[in-house]
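Changelog-adjacent note: as of this version, every example in the card shows the full chain rather than a window. The one below runs 398 residues end to end.
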Amino acid sequence: MHILSRLNASVALGQLLLCIVLVCAASVEAQAGPREQAYQMFNRLNGVPPTAAALDQMVVLIEAGKSKEAAMAAIEDPGAYFYNLNLKTWVGAWTNSDKTPRVGLNDYTATVVGMARDDVPFDQALYADIIYVAKPGLMDSKGVAIPAYSVSNNDQYVALEKDRINLKVNLVQQPQMSLTGLAESAGVLTTRAFGAAYYSDGTNRRALRFTLLTFLCNDLEQMHDTTRPDRHVRRDVTRDPGGDPSVYKNKCVGCHSGMDALAGAFAFFNYSVDKNQLLHTPGLVQGKYNQNTTEYPNGFKTIDSSWENLWVDGPNSRIGWKGATQGKGVSELGKMMTQTDAFPTCMAKRAYEQMCLHPASSDDDLTAVSNLAKDFSAGGKFSLKGLFAGAAAVCAGK
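Full-length structure tokens:
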């Protein structure tokens, strides 16, 4: 019994010491000093360590209670890679249906990078007549001219990336319609890269799905609602899949009722794989919208680019819709989506996870995201680099 008691005591002591070690380790992590916080912020924002001078500047700001300003200094540091590396990679995942960040620079990504650099309100990314291209007359490191922007290839952006040209100082904003010749523009939603990824093939429902997923952080599974009327469901959707009408009523309509009602916004857009070009036919609905009409001849026939938001009522009212409930074209649709509670929250969540390196799942995470979203949208400024600076400050030392 005596030996057993001593063994139990030893085990208890070991457990106590382990607890002390873990508590101390957690305490050290929680109490990371200004220098450690500054180093981590710079490294996460830029993917490289700071110079001694940059670190010292940030430490002074953090000690003065200006952590966000310290993060902004890291973003704007002359030797930093925030725009060329972190932001480019972050946006790259939005430009393809596989959601991989391992893609080349393109007009979609460059436009986001340029808007962030210039502090253009980021809600305009979904509706403004805006695009970012290389400076006119820009040369690469060998003295060869960077190709001009083209509506039928990505050569300009390939050259920018290949030569590692600094995007912070070598992108300029242009009116998109004057550059592309299209009669409609909606920021990144009418870029060549978006078209290649989401207007090619299919029925343009993919364009709506990935807009919801990217900018409202909701996929169709989360938006599923069988209580919405199906008056906009197109003729290519059978009403009795497998001979069972209940499958349509209980499953198919849950996505198609709201989705088809909004996807009409893209009705004049297509992407030609043969021409490598985004196509826009104002006044002429793309044939993909009225194909397979024999599936259900009495279904909805698309005749223009009008759309209706049926999700303002029912369970999807949680999105916090505040804009128009009806409209025409992609620009009006994009503006409607930015005028939601979900848009700033989604952007804040993405920036927070990028800076904290973990999903926003705990109550503390969600509170931080909510605060970042409020700051992001306050006064309609929608500053993307400000959002990243705020997220980096919140995550410093964690």
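Structural remarks: The two ends are 47 Å apart (CA to CA).
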